Amino acid sequence: MSTHKVSAVTIDEYEFPTGGHARGYLLSIALMILSARRRFIEPGSVLHDQLIARSATASKYAKPTQDVLFYFLYGAHSIEAVHFALTKLRKHNVKAFSLPWFQWIIAVFVGGVNAKKHFDAVVEKKELKTIKEI
């Protein structure tokens, strides 16, 4: 017996984010990139030379902070992507391993909560379109 409820709204394509959703994606991607590369906080980098080097405390905690940020972002977003695939994508009849499925999974991995809000907006838009057609 299935534990999820299937929606009447089927999402069969990926819609690129715009406006606030796009800004959220960009911020999340920037944080993921900054947390993934040690060179962004090493001497000689703009971030180090302009911000970190000015404070002994910042210099002391830059690497541990980057490590925590990395593991939190990549870990949380991985869990979110799996949860999203098993709940929302299944609920809205997105075929597993189809192109839209991969696009939405990647979007949730890099965008996190912003991607989930974007997906909800796409579903709502499609629901309104369906209602108007009736």
Mean pLDDT: 94
Secondary-structure-derived class: mainly alpha
The biggest beta sheet reads: none
Report the order of strands and helices: HHHHH
Q: How large is the count of helical segments?
A: 5
Low-confidence stretches: none
Percentage of residues in strands:
under 5%
Distance between the termini: 32 Å
Shape: elongated
Give the count of structural domains.
Answer: 1
Q: Which range best describes the helical content: under 10%, 10-25%, 25-40%, 40-55%, 55-70% or over 70%? A: 55-70%
Gyration radius (Cα, Å) is 19 Å
Say how many strands there are.
0
Describe this protein's structure.
With 134 residues, the chain is mostly helical. It has one domain (20-133). The protein is 69% helix and 0% strand. The protein contains five helices and no strands. It has helices at residues 19-36, 46-50, 56-91, 99-111, 113-133. The longest helix has 36 residues, at 56-91.
